[in-house]
Fold:
Amino acid sequence: MEENTQMSMTGTAGTRQDEDRELLPTATAAQTRAAVRELARPHRAAALSGLAILIASTGVGLLTAPILGHIIDLVAAGRPAAAITAPVAWLAVIAVAQGVTAAAGVSFIARLGEGMLATLRERFVERALGLPLERVERAGSGDLTSRVTNDVSVITNAVRDAMPALARSLLTIGLTLVGLAVLDWRFLLVALVAVPIQVRTVRWYVRRAVPLYAAQRVAVGAQQQQLLDTVGGASTVRAFRLAEEHVRLVGTRSRAAVDLALRGVGLVTRFYSRLNLAELAGLSAVLATGFLLVRNGDASVGTASAAALYFHSLFTPVNIALGLADDAQAAVSGLARLVGVADAAPVPAPSPAPAPVRALPAVSLPVRVCGVEYAYRPGHPVLHGVDLDIAAGERIALVGTSGAGKTTLAKIIAGVHPPGSGSVTVDGTEPSGTDRAAAGRPVALVTQEVHVFSGTLADDLRLARPEAGADELRRALERVGALTWAQALPEGLDTVVGENGHRLTPAQAQQLALARLVLADPPVVVLDEATAEAGSAGARLLEASASAAVDGRTALVVAHRLTQAAAADRVVVLDGGKVAETGTHAELVRAGGGYAALWEAWSDNRQAPGD
Amino acid sequence: MPIEGRDVLRRSITGHWRHTAGGSALAAGHQACEALVPVMIGVVIDRAISTGDAAELAGWIAALAAVFAVLSFSYRFSFRIAERASELAAHGLRAELAGRVLQARGGAEAGRLPGELVAVATQDAKRVGAVNVALAAGVSALAGLLAGGVALLRVSVPLGLVVLLGIPPLLLLAHLLGKPLERRSGAEQERAAHASGVAADLIAGLRVLKGIGAEAAAVDRYRRTSRDSLAATLRAARAQAWHDGGMLTLTGVFIAIVALVGGRLAAQGEISVGQLVAAVGLAQFLLTPLSILSWANGEFAQGRASAARVASVLAMPPAVTGGDDVLPEPLQGRIRLHEVTHGALRGLSLDVAPGELLGVVTADPAVAASLLRVLNRTADPSSGVVELDGVPLRTLDPAEVRRAVVVADHDADLFEGSLLGNVTAAMPPDAAPDAAEAAMAAAAVDEIARVLPYGAATALTERGRSLSGGQRQRVALARALATGAPVLVLHDPTTAVDAVTEARIAEGIRKVRSGRTTIMLVTSPALLAAADRVIFVDGGVPAAEGRHVELVHDNEAYRATVLA
Structure:
């Protein structure tokens, strides 16, 4: 009973939260079409050649049925067996020509599709990286991630598998119909009786398939996630005796995915069953027409046979083309979501110099925070008129409970959020202007989010300074105390790390982030890095790394351990969005306020603290 | 006898044998009907079109309709039934695997990453289940071959032999033609997929990139990757296109040969025109069951390999064996370690009195890890004994041990669900009504709930990733406190928590756990200051003991460990 209430509470909260999100834009149909046209423009030559070659290929292939019909007519006319050799030789020639042209045509179509896809994904990544962080956070980073993973892969599959198959099937269908018309226009007319059945079936199918497959993808994702949760947390599950509950959860999620998969199978089988009806109707009509035409002397038995063979050979391409309808639909909606971001995001200003960050003097700069207020939700201010002057090269430790506004203040100084009111200036200018997304900001931010980029360790580091030589990389690693383990990796700095490579420990990943910071060499640094995953021994190590990385820069460090605060030039205690205490560690300890009380546990009480 | 791959495979087929057998029978009917369609076309041409007999036309079209009805029906239900067997078998394996991994005696994950185990429970389970569909498809293909072959041989023995003997070398040729291309194209497809992977990776690291102003460098790098991938994809697509083109040519030449032989036979009056049409149609048709057969064979091979992987997980030996006694009631919560050697522990002896709040400090993470493992019987010590109220843990069922001794590991995971749901997940049914609330207050989770949009009812994303590291630690601590376990072991519960909150939490732990045994395996001065007694373990054995303030003052090594 209680459990049920909890679960439903969770459910509602989840939905409401989703509604709060302001998802990234989706393009309209017209915008999507325009984007596709624009993407196709550079490939027009390949598209036209590919189309021409495929038409030729399919046309050649369609000669097969009339030649078979001709053979039948030769037989019916009682001609000698030798007469058959010539048309058969033609059949072989056609087979070769068809194979060669089909290969060439499909190659051209692939060049068109893949070229467009590559340009689209590049543009998407470029614009997505240019989105203001604030906008991404409002949408939830899951939105962007799902676009770049799910939507890109749906479109990729459509381009790679569906497009060539669809192109060839549609051409085969079109040209077969032309072939039927050439045999006798009445064959074409009756063959079309299948069309209304097919149109209705496809409509019926797409209406059900698109939402069903979307639900199925969600269910499979949920099942995968549950397994990752359960298996990844197996030791926690055992320690807290949650196994029964988790086996039940895995079962429920798996069963939901199975049920949807089976509903999908049911739908597909009904779809093809209905298409069988269209096949039967068309084939009967073509046979009956052949019968009438032959009886009236309007066509030969060979022609009627050719028409029947033509129609029979339509079964497969029609099924392929119609079966791709839902793939096409999914690809179109994925495309709209990609184009939406690619169109909406500002075009990042072309970097004037190859590495503008380096153009700044590698010296520290003063920061002035003046009367800064901020609220994530109107009416719930997090910061109330914070004033703070940080001298060039000064290291400030920010202390306070979570919810005191430490992270918010850090983000505002780093330019992620513009202040609600008040101002932040770095060396007298506002870094949080309109171009705060562009490179060249004087303030770098390292947060508790660690991410190791897939690729070699050296490539990961070079994101911060693309032109850095191997020596520079090693020096940066050495400075943060990471050189030893980095060189001990199987292939040193060339070891592939990240998602599919060598797994770094959370502490190593955090040191890597600090090494990137050293390479980026910004004059002002905001550090809000967590040591949650590192354990207590790791936390101390990271403190030393962070301290080395910010040396010589103006730094604002969100302090998690008081030893960090003790090592800073000045400590600022935030409480309820206001500066409660400020001064050097020794001053605050002597003042005997809240900070001094905290410090007590960290010190040897029997010695006079602070000297 | 340990379970093997072939047992897994056999069970997944026999477990749903009614479905599998029914599906196979219907699928056989479907392929046989498919083979009949070209034969029927030939018959219509011979009996009706060539003769001009309307009654024959009506009769044979009705017969064609009957064939289609059977074809359509058997296709629809064979596929459904076989898929049902496949999905249910996979589902059963998933549940079994989850059960094995979570079994209290453990051992299944040894040496495996979570991702690997998940892949076994999803992809491998699916492939094992899919053997049911492959079986039905294989039976149907054989039925199609049989029906088509009989029909052809009835038309003409020499023509039938040309087709039936011609198809295997044709498929072999196609296989040989495709082999090198497939291998090459597989490798290049992989490189092609790389571009999507890199894009997702960069987006996942968006905040990091923006933090150091590396967007331009990232975009440049992505463009290079994308162009490399494009080149690889185009090479793969070209290889594939030429392979398909080659297949098209081979099939066309084969049909030409059939037409040549059949045409000559027809010209000599050995077979009728309609039979010639049927033979050409059948030659085309028979390629399908043969390719189904080779597909099914591939599925079986994959299914066998997957079944072996599933079996290897199911057959993993448990981490702890023996002992299934239950604990005497009521529990006092006295823990005693006597000369325990395990991992980094070197004959460690400890006594924890009922109700004591004990701090244990060690500079070596390996010592901490070893101690945690023996305390809740995740592992048994290689020598020495761990006792709860005088009962050796080795004699107790591991689940029973964990009912009494809850070990809250430093890297314990949160799960999907609401914040409150996570806190109450491991609460015993007879817990005090305000236990959750008290635990949340003690771990300062009430502060977190206040800033979340829907308070304690707010849903957390997977592993609580929507919270910061410090927030996750506090929720995990509240969950541990809410269990109200007779013995609670806390390992570094506040490393990511700010100092102000940590001091509050230290008070909270004291208050909530008063009267119950609590061991804190930490180096945090704030928490140690709250402990009744602190034991400093150095080199796997106790080196000093006393209150935090005394140890800080008297012991140089202790001071270096907790205050550095």
Notes: The radius of gyration of chain B is 35 Å. Residues 215-267 of chain B form the longest helix (53 residues).
